[in-house]
Specification:
The complex is a heterodimer of chains A (483) and B (88). Chain A has one domain: Amidase signature (AS) domain (Amidase signature (AS) enzymes). Chain A contains 15 helices and eleven strands. Chain A has an eleven-stranded mixed beta sheet. The two termini of chain A are 25 Å apart. In chain A, 60% of the residues are buried. Chain B has 88 residues and is an all-alpha fold. Chain B is built from two helices and no strands. Classes of the chains: A alpha/beta (483), B mainly alpha (88). At the A-B interface, helix 9, helix 10, helix 11, helix 12 and helix 13 of A face helix 1 and helix 2 of B.
Chain lengths: 483, 88
C-alpha cells in the first residue's frame, strides 16, 4: 500500500484498523517532501517536529483503544496566509518574512480539535494576488504534472502539495478563483464554499467581501469531510453564518450498473463560458463531461449569463483592488514585519517599507485600488462595479429558477508555462475569466478533474451551486467521479 | 491613459514608494487594466442598487458583557509574550 496516495477515508480506515500508525503515515509524507520538494517548491515552511509529535499523540489514543475523529492523524498542508499559532506565516511576502502567527485561525482550531497533523505552510502568490504562484516573494512553485508549467494560483503550493503526494489534503483560500483554478491545473478537487460558510478569522485579509477558505483534496468525498469540519458560524467573524450542512441526498448513488439515473437534475450550461480563444482540448473535455451527465439522465439546459465572464472579471478587477488597498494599509512598516531602518521620518518609513516589503503585483493592485477609490473616480469605477455585482447576482438568481446547478470549465486553458504571463498583468488576469463571478455572488463552486490533454495536463470542470447548497454540488461531483 | 503624475500621486496617497522606472512600468500596466475595466462605464445601470456584500446579513452585535479571560495572571493585568531579551 502506498501511504502517500491514500484519501482521507482510506487513511482513517487504515489508522483505525492499525494497518499503519499515524507516525508512519506522517513520516511517509515528510520523506516525500524531503525527496521531491526541491523540485516542486510547494512549501515555504515544513514543521516536522510538531507534525511527528501530534501523530504520536494520535497513535497513543488508538493504542488505548479510543475512537478518533475522521481527520485525526491525517497530514495536511496549509496555505501560508492562514495563521497557525507559533508558526511563521509569510503570505509569501517579504514584508512578513519573519512574522510568527500569534494565534490559530478558526479553521486551524477546528482541525486541531480533531487531532489533524500539520505538515507545513505552502507557497502562494504574495498575499494571494495572482493566478500562477509566480508572485511569491520567495520562489515559484512548479506543477507536478510538468515542471515547466505553473501550478496555478494563488493557492498553487497547496494544489501542488496534494498533487505531488506531499499531503493527504490542503487548505487554500479563494478570492477570485484561487482554490479552483490551481485545483484544475494540478488535477485535484477544490471547493470554494459559500461566502460566510467558513470563518475567515485568522485568514490574512485580501478582499474581505470575496475571501473564503476551502479544502483542496484528492476526491470529492474528502472535500466534503474537510468542508464539514471547518464550516460554521464563528463569533470572531461576524460575516460567518449559522449553517448546518443538510443530510439530504439529492441524487441516487450513481451506481450506473444498477441503472441509476439522475433525471431530476437540471444542469445549466451558459454559452458565454465557451469563448473564442479557449483551448480546444479544454472545450472538448468539458463538453464530453456534460455529455456524460446528460447520458446519465441529467437535463441539460442552454442558458445565458451575459455579464458573468467579461463584465464580472472587469468588476472583480475594480472591487478586489479597492478592498486590497484598504486591507493592506495595515502593513505600514511599524505594526508588522519589515521596516526600513534608514528612513528619516514617518512618511519615509511608510514609503520605503512598503516599496521594499511589497512585490510588484501587490503594489500595482494597491495603486489601482487607491486610484479607483479616489475622489472623482469613485462613481465611475467602484460604484459602477458594485452595481454590476448586483446585476451578476440577479442573473444567477434568475438562472437558478430553472436549473439546479451550472456546469462550466474552471479555466480556459490547462496549466500555462512559467514566465508565459508574468510580465503582462492583464493576460494573467484573464486566466480568472471563469471563476470571479462566483466570488462576486458569494456562491459555492467545486472544481474537479474531468480529463487530460494529449500531453497529460489536467483539465478541470466547475460545478456552481446556489448559496449554501454545497451539498448539491458535492453530490453531483461524487456522482461524476463514478461515471 | 493614466498619467505619470497620477501614478506618482496615487502611489503617494497609498504610501508606496516608486522609482522613475517603476512609474513608467506602472503607468503602462495600470493603463491597460483601466482600459479593460472601462467597458463597465458603457453599461446603463442607473437606478441599480450597489452590492458591497454577497450574503444578506444585518448588523451583527453581541451583548456588552464581561467575559472571563483565560490568560489573566493578576487582577487587572494580562500575560503577553516577553519582548525583551535577557533576565527580567
Amino acid at each position: 500500500m502506498d501511504l502517500i496516495e491514500l484519501t482521507i477515508e482510506k487513511a482513517h480506515e487504515g489508522l483505525v484498523k492499525k494497518e499503519f500508525s499515524a507516525l508512519e503515515l506522517t513520516k511517509a509524507f515528510l520523506d516525500k517532501i524531503k525527496d521531491l520538494d526541491k523540485k516542486i517548491s510547494a512549501f515555504i515552511t515544513v514543521t516536522p517536529d510538531s507534525a511527528l509529535s501530534q501523530a504520536k499523540k494520535v497513535d497513543d489514543l488508538i493504542s488505548q483503544g479510543r475512537g478518533i475523529p475522521i481527520l485525526s492523524g491525517i497530514p495536511l498542508a496549509v496555505k501560508d496566509i492562514i495563521l497557525i499559532d507559533g508558526v511563521k506565516c509569510t503570505a509569501a511576502s517579504k514584508i512578513l518574512e519573519d512574522y510568527i502567527a500569534p494565534y490559530d485561525a478558526t479553521v486551524i482550531k477546528k482541525l486541531k480539535s480533531q487531532g489533524a497533523v500539520f505538515l507545513g505552510k505552502t507557497n502562494l502568490d504574495e498575499f494571494a494576488m495572482g493566478a500562477s504562484t509566480e508572485n511569491s516573494a520567495f520562489f515559484p512553485t512548479k506543477n507536478p504534472h510538468d515542471l515547466n508549467r505553473v501550478p496555478g494560483g494563488s493557492s498553487g503550493g497547496s494544489a501542488a502539495a496534494v498533487a505531488a503526494g506531499f499531503s493527504v489534503y490542503a487548505l487554500g483560500s479563494d478570492t477570485g478563483g484561487s482554490i479552483r483554478q490551481p485545483a484544475s491545473f494540478c488535477g485535484i478537487v477544490g471547493l470554494k464554499p459559500t461566502y460566510g460558510a467558513v470563518s475567515r478569522y485568522g485568514l490574512m485579509a485580501m478582499a474581505s467581501s470575496l475571501d473564503q477558505i476551502g479544502p483542496m483534496t484528492r476526491n470529492v468525498a474528502d472535500a466534503r469531510i474537510v468542508f464539514e469540519a471547518i464550516a460554521g458560524k464563528d463569533e470572531k467573524d461576524s460575516t460567518s453564518v449559522e449553517y448546518q450542512i443538510p443530510d439530504t441526498r439529492y441524487l441516487p448513488t450513481g451506481d450506473l450498473s444498477k441503472g441509476d439515473k439522475i433525471q431530476s437534475l437540471r444542469i445549466g450550461v451558459p454559452k458565454e463560458y465557451f469563448i473564442k480563444g479557449m483551448d480546444p482540448e479544454v472545450e472538448k473535455s468539458v463538453k464530453n463531461a456534460i455529455k456524460k451527465l446528460e447520458l446519465a439522465g441529467a437535463k441539460i439546459q442552454d442558458i445565458s449569463l451575459p455579464r458573468n465572464t467579461d463584465d464580472a472579471l472587469a468588476a472583480y478587477y475594480i472591487i478586489m483592488p479597492c478592498e486590497v488597498s484598504a486591507n493592506l494599509a495595515r502593513y505600514d512598516g511599524i505594526k508588522y514585519g519589515y521596516s526600513d531602518s534608514g528612513a528619516k521620518d514617518l512618511m519615509e518609513v511608510y514609503l520605503k517599507s512598503r516599496k521594499e516589503g511589497f512585490g510588484k503585483e501587490v503594489r500595482r493592485r494597491i495603486i489601482i485600488g487607491t486610484y479607483a477609490l479616489s475622489s472623482g473616480y469613485y462613481e465611475a469605477y467602484y460604484l459602477q462595479a458594485q452595481k454590476v455585482r448586483t446585476k451578476i447576482i440577479e442573473d444567477f438568481n434568475n438562472v437558478f429558477k430553472s436549473v439546479d446547478v451550472i456546469v462550466v470549465p474552471t479555466a480556459p486553458t490547462p496549466a500555462f508555462k512559467l514566465e508565459e504571463k508574468s510580465e503582462d498583468p492583464l493576460s494573467m488576469y484573464l486566466a480568472d475569466i471563469f471563476v470571479t463571478a462566483v466570488n462576486l455572488a458569494g456562491l459555492p463552486a467545486l472544481s474537479l478533474p474531468c480529463g487530460k490533454t494529449a500531453s497529460g495536463l489536467p483539465i478541470g470542470l466547475q460545478i456552481i451551486g446556489k448559496q449554501f447548497e454545497e451539498n448539491k454540488i458535492l453530490e453531483l461531483g461524487e456522482f461524476f467521479e463514478k461515471l | 491613459m493614466i498619467t505619470k503624475k497620477e501614478v506618482q500621486h496615487t502611489a503617494n496617497l497609498a504610501r508606496i514608494g516608486v522609482t522613475e522606472a517603476e512609474i513608467e512600468k506602472f503607468q503602462k500596466d495600470i493603463s491597460s487594466v483601466l482600459a479593460y475595466v472601462d467597458k463597465l462605464k458603457k453599461l446603463d445601470l442607473a437606478g441599480v442598487e450597489p452590492t458591497s456584500h454577497p450574503v444578506k446579513i444585518d448588523n451583527v452585535t453581541r451583548k456588552d458583557e464581561a467575559r472571563p479571560w483565560p490568560q489573566r495572571l493578576l487582577p487587572g493585568f494580562l500575560k503577553v509574550k516577553s519582548i525583551f531579551n535577557g533576565s527580567n
